[in-house]
Write a structure and sequence with these properties.
four-stranded antiparallel beta sheet, 456 residues, Aspartate Aminotransferase, domain 2, 3 domains, alpha/beta, 18% strand, Aspartate Aminotransferase, domain 1, 19 helices
Length: 456
């Protein structure tokens, strides 16, 4: 049959809407939604017919394609996945998991009116920062705090407020690039401040900062190199020394701390990361950090520091464009409350629970998972429990490797890429990693062995 005759067999949309299977769809979905799916299915089918790539029955194929398009649309929201990558704070998988208390707080805020910007005592308009500011001040020792939607926004807002149209002095070795190719110089340019580099990639001294300060200088910026390390013949100016230079010259000092640990991770047997309260105590005017990394909360950019600087930041009209919504603030408030009140923070925060998980526990889950996988997937697959290392992720402690356990999954005829695709096709998708030609399921974030068994 030629293409012209086959094209003529494709029914009109009105006729398709009258079929029993389309009427069943109309009982579940809006007419415009179903009509759009049918129209796209017909257009795709016409292209395939013209290309000689289709030769079957027309109407069943339209039903199949329209149904598949509707199913894809229903899954358009972020799909739940199983994180077996061995990266605890995986940017592509949403970073920190929220504790139950934060999830409940988000649900309450989402489904009910909340006092977001209402002072209940006076009945007048309030400040949404009041939801979290008291806890942030208590946890960091800062005089004041405000919150925006991520740390890049926090840096942008601080620079725009304190140094728009003026130079900001920063060490060449701290001109970092964060995820998605966003770079400090580019963020600074968007803020309206002008970059003034000092020092070299590996060595910067106090005299470099002092020599660069002039009439056009608006601020000094220190950037914590949280996602890489420079080792060997290196030198950097400590924050306290930079603050002293700033005080002497009447210039504000801003520190982009990045990952934002609120507690000393060494107390949990993890590598040490700068603690926000320590940086505030050294006199920085503004310290910025993320909410969804080591803090273990929602995506947010947090600014803490001295009251005059934070007050100016709060008055900046740009802050309104960058402010978080009620859901973010509800989640952040719940997490900060746990930091102040939870008797066992490791158990309260999923991020700390993942980071400090015992190897013996992972091994037990792994052995059980191998039995389930062998039963579910058959003899063509083979499984091996092995030692490995996991990562903290999201640029936090980049040189720190966490001991972990993995299940190496092999197949009689399929390569690692094909095995990985098979697991990604599961419902929910199971995301592992490929290392040295083997597909690995890292057990650091797996607490239920059944989660690793693909269901299609």
């Amino acid at each position: 049959m030629d293409a012209a005759r086959r094209l003529a067999e494709i029914p009109s949309i009105d006729r398709l809407l009258g079929t029993s299977w389309a009427r069943a769809l109309l009982a579940r979905y809006a007419r415009e939604f179903v009509t759009g799916a049918l129209r796209r299915a017909c257009e795709e089918l016409r292209r395939d017919v013209r290309a000689g790539a289709f030769g079957g029955d027309v109407e069943p194929e339209i039903e199949r394609r329209a149904g598949a398009a509707i199913a894809r649309a229903e899954r358009a929201a972020p799909a739940e996945v199983v994180n077996a990558t061995g990266v605890v704070l995986h940017t592509n998988l949403g970073r920190a998991l929220l504790p139950d208390e934060a999830v409940a707080a988000v649900a309450r805020a989402a489904g009910r009116p909340v006092a977001l910007e209402l002072d209940l005592a006076s009945g007048r308009r309030g400040d949404r920062d009041s939801i979290v500011e008291e806890d942030l001040v208590a946890l960091t020792g800062a005089e004041a705090a405000t919150v925006v939607n991520n740390n890049a926004a926090a840096v942008l807002l601080a620079l725009n407020t304190l140094a728009e149209g003026r130079e900001v002095v920063v060490s060449r070795g701290e001109l970092v690039e964060i995820g998605g190719s966003f770079r400090i110089p580019e963020v600074m340019a968007k803020s309206g401040a002008r970059l003034r580099e000092v020092g070299t990639t590996n060595r910067t001294h106090a005299g470099d900062y002092a020599a660069a300060i002039g009439p056009e200088t608006g601020a000094l910026l220190k950037v914590h190199t949280s996602n890489y390390r420079v080792v060997g013949f290196t030198a950097e100016v400590p924050l306290a020394e930079l603050v002293a230079i700033g005080r002497e010259r009447g210039l504000p000092v801003i520190e982009d701390l990045g990952s934002g640990a609120l507690v000393d991770l060494a107390a949990f047997g993890l590598p040490r990361e700068p603690v926000v309260a320590e940086r505030v105590a050294q006199g920085a005017d503004v310290v910025t950090f993320s909410g969804d990394k080591l803090l273990g909360g929602p995506q947010a950019g947090i600014l803490v520091g001295r009251r005059p600087a934070i007050a100016r930041i709060k008055e900046n009209p740009l802050r309104r464009a960058l402010r978080p919504d009620k859901l973010t603030l509800a989640a952040l408030a719940a997490v900060l409350s746990l930091y102040r009140r939870a008797p066992d923070l490791r158990q309260a925060l999923p991020t700390l629970r993942w980071l400090t998980r015992p190897l013996a526990e992972m091994e037990a889950v792994g052995r059980e998972a191998i039995e389930r996988l062998a039963s579910a997937l058959g003899e063509a697959f083979r499984f091996e429990l092995a030692d490995s290392t996991a990562e903290i992720g999201s640029g936090a402690l980049p040189t720190a490797a966490l001991p972990s356990k993995v299940i190496a999954v092999g197949h009689r005829s399929l390569g690692a890429d094909a095995v990985a695709a098979r697991f990604r096709a599961a419902r929910p998708p199971i995301i592992g990693r490929i290392h040295e030609g083997r597909f690995l399921l890292d057990l650091r974030g797996i607490f239920d062995s059944q989660a690793l068994v693909p269901r299609e």
